[in-house]
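Sync notes, pocket subgroup
Present: LS, DG
LS reminded everyone that the earlier model was apo-only. Rerun requested with copper (II) ion included. Inputs:
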Amino acid sequence: MIDVSRRTVLLGGTAASVIRGLCPSSARAEDSARPSLPIPSELRANAEGTIVLNARSGSMRFRGDHDTATYGINGPYLGPAVRVRRGEKVVAQVSNGVPENITMHWHGLIIPGAADGGPHRVIPPGKQWQTELSIDQPAATLWFHPHYYPSTAQEVIKGLAGLLIVDDDEIARLPLPSQWGIDDIPLILQDRRFAPDGQFFDRMNIVAVTNGYIGDTALANGARYPEARTARGWLRLRILNGSNARSYALAASDGRSLYVIASDGGLLESPVELKQLLVHVGERFEVLVDGRDGSAFDLVTLPISQGIMRLPPFDRSLPLVTIRPDGVEGKGQLPTNLAVLPPLTDPLPPVSQELVMNMFKDAQGMMLLKRAGLMAMAESGKTDPEVVAHVVNLIVNEPALAQSDQLSANGVNGKPFSLDRIDFAATRNQYLRWRIAEGTDRMLHPVHVHGCQFRIISQDGKPPEPHRAGWKDIAPISAGGVTEILLRFQHTANRDNPYMAHCHILEHEDSGMMAQFTVS
Ligand code: C2O
Ligand code: CU
Ligand code: CU
């Protein structure tokens, strides 16, 4: 079912034979071709209760011969893993050291609109934003990233994003692997494309506003096909799909099971065993894998159905990271029960809000790809180098849209996003049912709602998959489909700092597929 890459076979042969520690320098000496998986450092509030984040410019060598100009937070690319605890009140202090406006949004955190860091909380270059974050929600793997309209996509491409981990007493009582970087491994998955001069490719053209960003290089924590030396034992992978547009179909190269223990907003009721885990942009899953045998395996991504996302090297099982669980003995276990989640309300409230995602340029984008032969190639299942070259040429060379064309390319409920228009209002402290639908286009949209963690009631009339039945802040809306969610807002969001509801394909968000709402 899963084809094992040659690389994995080679690694598998040597991994079990020697026990080695976790020293990254010895790993480098043994195999200079493979980078070690970078582990973002943990950052807690300092003695004054402040979490200090500095967005800055930097440079990184992703590929042999060129340095790439990047942005990062407290480092050259990506950011630290911020750790907060339920019950804690911290001050987040964000300084903008990059030469453009940013904001900093706490994706998945249940906080008032004024603290949310959406498109209205602009931090100009050289300026600072301080906001109090009062943490009151279950343990979860969240993240933070800029939300500046309309250039979130390009700021995330350059490297502005980081993990935000909420801890609590309940999760501390479970025997889960929790030694950071040893048996508790963060994995930020992204795809990028590089221009010939080594800089990140980034162009808002017709292909991008319709399909989103299409990279040809997979990165894990900013490294290309790195290797993680981990503890021997149960491993916890905290997976964030931090890509702009790409979904990943994750599997272990040797077919070992992935036990999903948590979704976006926290623990599931019990682990869900999967051989393949589809992760859409913005989604997080915590996954336990059994590494007690000490043998190496790759986490791979399998081809997904969307034709343009199957361009090489994503047209086959592509290894993202090698996991070598041959270090110290890990102490974590896979529990049978994880958490008690409240059942969905019975009866469900009536639908109070409908949201329809629109792609106004879908036909135009699709026609180009069809003419290039992409649809026919996707149907045949075989990669045709000529078609690939043609499609890549469109991705790279179609001219950037004029900004007014970009901003009106997509929409919600028939209208492209506008900073000056509040699209709807929601009532606080009340169960709400939203019905989110696809227009008539051909794509899945992972729709995110600020200010809450919600539950999926149904997707296309069916109950959610078990690993999406817990707390979520992203709801996949399948092509032509409908997803219903049950939500409740605990905080307010006023006209000056409204919450956002949007497709998390960042090129869709930046081109109109976003709505804003108040809560009172
Ligand atoms: Cu992760 Cu509105 O964003
Ligand atoms: Cu968010
Ligand atoms: Cu979308």
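DG: Residues 105, 107, 448, 450 surround copper (II) ion (ligand 2) (CB under 6 Å).
LS: The first helix runs from residue 6 to 15.
Action: DG to write up.
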